[in-house]
Amino acid sequence: MAISIRGKNLDITPALKEYIEKKVKKVTKYFDKTGDIAVVLKVEKGNHQVEVTVPVNGILIRGEESTVDMYASIDQVMEKLEKQIEKHKTKLSKKFRGGGFRADIASSVVVPEVEENGIIVRTKRFAVKPMDSEEAVMQMNLLNHDFFMFLNIETEHVNLVYRRRDGQFGLLEPEF
Predict the structure, then answer these.
(1) Residue ranges with strand state E in 2-46
(2) What is the Cα–Cα distance from 41 to 95, expressed in whole angstroms?
(3) Fewer beta carbons within 10 angstroms: which end of the chain, N or C?
């Protein structure tokens, strides 16, 4: 496992790098093996934003926080990730039956950003993984997104799950 730390509008000091590595290791204790962890630090208009993405056995766990202090943002995003792992502990342990999730301790999906005039200003590509809708909802929650695109194992078509305004979930299936 490697930790990739990038800064936007910010220089990464050795002390900041050491602090991030120390905090990230607390989240990795839940798993036997993780992929390369990506940490992005941004400073925009006085806000210090931290994004952390942890890939584990084909699942992405993602958190994002923004405060006026970079160290506080790091602390809050790591707390958020630990709460997500705790909340989905049972589902994760079922997903990793053969190992990977340590139950005894108990590239991300982004849609194009559209300006008001309808011009796409950003495009991200990602692998669409085969899974059922329940697993897709769990993945969406772990990423902290309101939608998630996946390859439905049952229909072999690309589907999308989303969070409705009433807090329930919806599923979009293509019709051919």
Answers:
(1) 3-8, 37-44
(2) 30
(3) C
Rounded distance between C-alpha atoms, residue 168 and residue 11, angstroms: 41
**Which residues 6+ apart lie within 8 Å of 137 measured at CB?**
148, 161, 169
- 88, 59 in Cβ contact below 8 A? no
Q: Which residue(s) pair with 120 in the sheet?
A: 114
Q: With 0.85 as the threshold, say if the pTM is over it.
A: no
Please write the tens of the pLDDT for every residue from 72-106: 999 999 998 888 877 776 666 666 555 555 444 44
Q: How far is CA 17 from CA 13, 20, 22, 103, 168, in A?
A: 6, 5, 9, 29, 39
Q: How far is CA 62 from CA 56, 75, 79, 156, in A?
A: 11, 14, 12, 26
Strands 147-152 and 158-163: antiparallel
Strand order through the sheet with 147-152: 130-131, 147-152, 158-163, 169-172
